[in-house]
Amino acid sequence: MNIEQKRKFIINFAFICCVLLVIYFCLKYLAAWLLPFVAAFITACLLQYPISYILRKTKLTRKIVSPIVTTIVVIAAGALIFVTAHSLAKEFVGFITYLPEWYQNTVPAVMETIVWITYKPL
Q: What Cα–Cα distance (Å) separates residue 84 from each residue in 33, 60, 90, 114?
């Protein structure tokens, strides 16, 4: 390896490190602010297919179809999030309610087994 190749390697390595450092700091500090815009962009891109399909099948304009499809998708996503959160909360309450009974039934048996295993006669 001659001097020129080493110099190119060092310059390329330093450039890649700087790019990775900038990407890291952008993701660390800007991701929370940019995430809603990224999510909206992805949603808009995904909604283009159903909107285009509806436009081809009907004689409606994009001004009418886009808000309707977007509203339906947002309501469906909100309902899905609500049902999931409600189910998780219900399961958590059931778990907390069952915990004392489980503690009274299981812990003494486990402790008895541990004591028996630990202090069993030879």
A: 25, 35, 10, 39
